[in-house]
User: Fold this.
Amino acid sequence: MRALIAAAIGLAAALAVVLTVTAIGAPPGETSPKPLRTTVPEHP
Assistant:
């Protein structure tokens, strides 16, 4: 029973954080036009 209560509290806290961030909104700014490298370039 304690585990269920702890899980419910954790879920409520996570939901509160998500709603707070959503209410505040994303910070102003622009994204970079340069793509990010996701792999290591191969050596010739």
Observations:
- Residues 1-25 form one domain.
- The longest helix spans residues 2-24.
- The CA atoms of residues 18 and 39 lie 31 Å apart.
